[in-house]
Amino acid sequence: MNNENDNHIIDTVISLLDIIVIIQIEDDPIIGIVLVALLKTVTKDRLIRILLILLVIILGEVSEIEN
Description:
Keywords: Membrane, Transmembrane, Transmembrane helix. The chain crosses the membrane at residues 47-65. This protein is mainly α. Helix content is 87%, strand content 0%. It has helices spanning 2-24, 29-42, 46-66. Helix 1 runs antiparallel to helix 2 (29-42) and helix 1 (2-24) runs parallel beside helix 3 (46-66).
Protein backbone atom coordinates (compact mmCIF):
# COMPACT_ATOMS: atom_id res chain seq x y z
CA MET A 1 0.00 0.00 0.00
CA ASN A 2 2.80 2.40 0.85
CA ASN A 3 4.48 1.71 -2.48
CA GLU A 4 1.31 2.70 -4.37
CA ASN A 5 1.17 5.99 -2.47
CA ASP A 6 4.84 6.66 -3.22
CA ASN A 7 4.29 5.97 -6.92
CA HIS A 8 1.30 8.31 -6.98
CA ILE A 9 3.27 11.09 -5.29
CA ILE A 10 6.21 10.64 -7.68
CA ASP A 11 3.89 10.70 -10.70
CA THR A 12 2.32 13.92 -9.40
CA VAL A 13 5.73 15.53 -8.92
CA ILE A 14 6.77 14.52 -12.44
CA SER A 15 3.58 16.03 -13.87
CA LEU A 16 4.18 19.30 -12.02
CA LEU A 17 7.79 19.42 -13.22
CA ASP A 18 6.58 18.79 -16.78
CA ILE A 19 4.27 21.78 -16.51
CA ILE A 20 7.10 23.94 -15.14
CA VAL A 21 9.30 23.01 -18.11
CA ILE A 22 6.55 23.90 -20.58
CA ILE A 23 5.91 27.24 -18.85
CA GLN A 24 9.62 28.01 -18.54
CA ILE A 25 10.19 27.85 -22.29
CA GLU A 26 8.18 31.02 -22.96
CA ASP A 27 9.43 31.75 -26.47
CA ASP A 28 8.20 28.52 -28.01
CA PRO A 29 6.09 26.30 -25.74
CA ILE A 30 5.93 23.60 -28.41
CA ILE A 31 9.61 22.90 -27.75
CA GLY A 32 8.76 22.32 -24.08
CA ILE A 33 5.93 19.96 -24.97
CA VAL A 34 8.16 18.00 -27.35
CA LEU A 35 10.91 17.87 -24.72
CA VAL A 36 8.51 16.52 -22.10
CA ALA A 37 7.17 13.93 -24.55
CA LEU A 38 10.71 12.82 -25.40
CA LEU A 39 11.62 12.48 -21.74
CA LYS A 40 8.54 10.33 -21.15
CA THR A 41 9.32 8.01 -24.04
CA VAL A 42 13.07 7.74 -23.51
CA THR A 43 13.15 7.08 -19.78
CA LYS A 44 10.92 4.70 -17.88
CA ASP A 45 12.70 5.15 -14.55
CA ARG A 46 10.93 7.85 -12.54
CA LEU A 47 14.01 9.09 -10.71
CA ILE A 48 15.95 9.58 -13.93
CA ARG A 49 12.99 11.48 -15.44
CA ILE A 50 12.86 13.79 -12.43
CA LEU A 51 16.60 14.42 -12.60
CA LEU A 52 16.50 15.14 -16.35
CA ILE A 53 13.57 17.53 -15.94
CA LEU A 54 15.37 19.34 -13.13
CA LEU A 55 18.46 19.55 -15.33
CA VAL A 56 16.41 21.18 -18.09
CA ILE A 57 14.97 23.68 -15.61
CA ILE A 58 18.42 24.56 -14.25
CA LEU A 59 19.93 24.91 -17.71
CA GLY A 60 17.04 27.15 -18.72
CA GLU A 61 17.65 29.39 -15.74
CA VAL A 62 21.38 29.55 -16.38
CA SER A 63 20.88 30.50 -20.03
CA GLU A 64 18.48 33.28 -18.98
CA ILE A 65 21.07 34.67 -16.57
CA GLU A 66 23.76 34.71 -19.28
CA ASN A 67 21.53 36.68 -21.63
